[in-house]
Design a protein that fits this description.
The structure holds two protein chains of two kinds.
Chain A: H1 3-20, H2 28-37, H3 40-75, H4 87-101, H5 110-130, H6 136-160, H7 170-175, H8 183-201, H9 204-210, H10 214-219, H11 224-246, H12 252-260, H13 268-293, H14 301-324
Helix pairs in contact in A: 1-3, 1-13, 2-3, 3-8, 3-11, 3-12, 3-13, 4-5, 4-6, 4-11, 5-6, 5-11, 8-11, 9-13, 12-13, 12-14
Chain B: H1 3-15, E1 27-29, H2 32-41, E2 47-51, H3 63-66, E3 71-72, H4 76-81, E4 86-90, H5 95-103, E5 108-111, H6 117-131, H7 134-152, E6 160-165, E7 169-171, H8 176-183, E8 187-188, H9 189-192, E9 198-200, H10 203-209, E10 213-217, H11 225-228, E11 240-243, H12 254-262
Parallel strand pairs in B: 1-2, 1-4, 2-3, 4-5, 6-8, 6-10, 10-11
Antiparallel strand pairs in B: 6-7, 7-9
Classes of the chains: A mainly alpha, B alpha/beta.
């Protein structure tokens, strides 16, 4: 199987490109030596501006891909995606509340914890409403309701903010962006991404067994309640932390597992690893496009992702319809 | 024609339009900057009301003084009920309100925002005329020019400075803020980046240009991602000061206070 080497090479190439593309033009060798030494203004640009951006792209993409694959594996439904079913939106709401009330300034974990808290509520809500079978209709309806509610509440909180810039940032919280993020943001997101990622990846065997149905999985010794709890907390931790620093980026968790599924024989355990790599590749690429197409306009990541992802999503719906009839 | 109208017509032909009613007695201002000039040049009892941000210390350098006057919300109905004989508005005041005032027979005078020191002088003189206190305006203009000359005197070095605000927005040499910077004895880094009015200066470009000084505005309460850029670690190696507040907004003599405050960071004016 050549999928993992290809994805890893793409990831490395795009990570390097992400470090080398920016407003400042400098030779590759100058840029790399500045990245190592941190000397001079170019060193500051490489170490404090471009490196955290590239790392965050990997974190955001990796966790979104992983969360999408895990949710889809657990619910056995290809539509289960953090953005689509309102988990990202709820995380945005948690982050916005923490930032606007000043709670985020109390201690450094306050911001991701608040986003995480709202995502946990959203995931629990989705699971309660959609049922464990994860039927498409109830899943999507529950997701739409939670997305709409959290989006509206986010707008409301930002509209009530005393800060005149806050209202303009509704777009950021709904579309996501990586521009001018710093290592402060990386340190906020990283621990939650690692813990959440480890929790979700450890569910591989359970998700494989679940693909045969819940009863079969139970007879194979899979503890269903424990699996569910690990999934909820793991997904909420990853989505909460990355959304708190980069806004809600849609479509990654939907499109990436969909593309990669056939390469991994639809095994959830392998698909999760592949989707984490694939998601990171996709966000790195999208963030590069953002910088290359309209470098001065802070084009939102979610805009590029939707332009790339919506056609694939439509294709997915079309195929689902064909399968059902 | 009724006698009163005839008298008014004759007076208008003799003295020009304004003196028909003598000095305006009930002046309403709809714009922060006309608020300031009005308070500076009018008699207190000439002022009927000021715009609602006149009392906000973040934008109004005379917020304290504005507390003593009535405030209007900029609503046509409310203004009309205050029976003004002169309404002062800015270029960007709601056009619907201005048209409504004029169709109700109220004189509306529009002031364009000041972009340089000459604009300030013209607006001060014009406001003095309108309010019937041209001699006050003359005195203010003399003081203004004397103080400006005093402030710009003795500057030999011109350090490179960047005006940097939320969303990475920088202000060029053609703007009022640019002229304040220049009068304080600094060269504007935006000129090097090819920006003469205003525009986005990417953080990377700012860091690479290595200005001697970064001048940022004070941030608003609450949180905004737009303002996070002002605390970005990449700015830490650069010397930066927080300035640009209410004194920078309007073209009044308060501009010179802004110049003087900025000069505290200038090597020829005592900064190390």
């Amino acid at each position: 199987m050549r999928l993992f080497p290809i994805l890893s090479i793409l990831l490395a190439l795009l990570f390097a490109a992400s470090l080398l593309v920016g407003h400042t033009t400098a030779s590759i060798s100058d840029s790399l030596s500045a990245l190592m030494t941190g000397d001079g203004p170019l060193g500051t640009v490489m170490q404090d501006i471009r490196l955290p951006r590239a790392i965050l792209a990997v974190l955001v993409g990796g966790t979104l891909g992983l969360a999408g694959a895990a949710m889809q594996g657990y619910l056995r439904n290809p539509l289960a995606e953090p953005g689509l079913i309102g988990i990202s939106g709820a995380a945005s709401l948690g982050a916005v509340i923490a930032l606007q009330t000043g709670f985020a300034g109390l201690f450094w974990l306050a911001l991701p914890m608040s986003a995480l808290g709202m995502s946990v509520l959203a995931v629990l809500g989705i699971l309660a409403l959609a049922g464990r079978q994860g039927r498409s209709l109830s899943l999507i309806l529950a997701g739409i309701a939670i997305s709409a509610l959290s989006g509206a509440m986010t707008s409301l909180v930002l509209n009530l903010s005393p800060n005149p810039y806050a209202t303009a940032e509704i777009v950021f919280w709904m579309m996501g962006s990586l521009s001018d993020r710093s290592f402060d943001h990386v340190w906020i997101a990283l621990p939650f991404c690692i813990i959440g990622g480890a929790m979700v990846l450890s569910l591989g065997p359970a998700l494989n067994a679940l693909s045969l149905g819940e009863d079969t999985a139970a007879t194979m010794g899979i503890h269903l309640a424990r699996t569910r709890l690990m999934l909820v907390i793991g997904v909420a931790a990853m989505i909460g932390a990355t959304t708190a620093v980069a806004g809600a980026v849609g479509f990654v968790g939907l499109v990436i597992p969909h593309i990669l599924r056939r390469w991994v024989q639809a095994r959830p355990s392998t698909l999760m690893w592949a989707s984490a790599l694939g998601g990171a590749v996709m966000i790195l690429a999208a963030d590069l496009l953002v910088r290359l197409i309209l470098p001065d306009r802070d084009l939102k990541l979610g805009v590029v992702m939707a332009i790339l992802g919506a056609p694939l999503f439509l294709h997915l719906i079309y195929k689902t319809r064909a399968d059902m009839s | 024609m009724r006698p009163s109208k005839l008298i008014a017509l004759v007076a208008a032909l003799l003295f020009g339009a304004a003196p028909i009613y003598g000095n305006p007695q009930r002046v309403v201002s709809l714009n922060l900057c006309t608020d300031q000039l009005l308070m500076l040049l009018a008699d207190g009892d000439q002022i009927a009301s000021l715009s609602k941000i006149a009392t906000d210390p973040r934008t109004s350098p005379m917020a304290q003084r504005a507390q003593g006057f009535a405030i209007n919300s900029g609503d046509a109905e409310e203004i009309f009920m205050q029976a003004p004989d002169l309404v002062l508005a800015g270029t960007y005041t709601e056009q619907g309100t201005v048209q409504m005032m004029r169709s109700l027979g109220i004189t509306v005078e529009i002031f364009a925002p000041e972009q340089n020191f000459d604009d300030i002088r013209q607006n001060i003189a014009r406001m003095g005329q309108l309010l019937g206190h041209p001699q006050r305006a003359d005195t203010m203009l003399r003081d203004f020019d004397d103080r400006l000359a005093q402030l710009t005197d003795g500057i030999t070095q011109r350090p490179r400075a960047a005006l940097y605000s939320a969303n990475g927005y920088t202000t060029g040499a053609e703007t009022m803020a640019g002229h304040i910077l220049s009068a304080a004895g600094f060269d504007n880094i935006a000129t090097e980046a090819g920006i003469s009015w205003g525009g986005t200066l990417p953080l990377e470009t700012l860091v690479m240009l290595q200005p001697d000084l970064v001048i940022t505005g004070s941030t608003y309460p609450g949180h905004s991602r737009s303002e996070e850029i002002l605390r970005h670690p990449a700015l830490t190696p650069l010397k930066s000061i927080t300035q640009t507040g209410a004194k920078w907004v309007c073209g009044t003599p308060a501009i010179l206070d802004a110049v003087a405050e900025l000069q505290r960071a200038h090597p020829d004016k005592g900064a190390k």
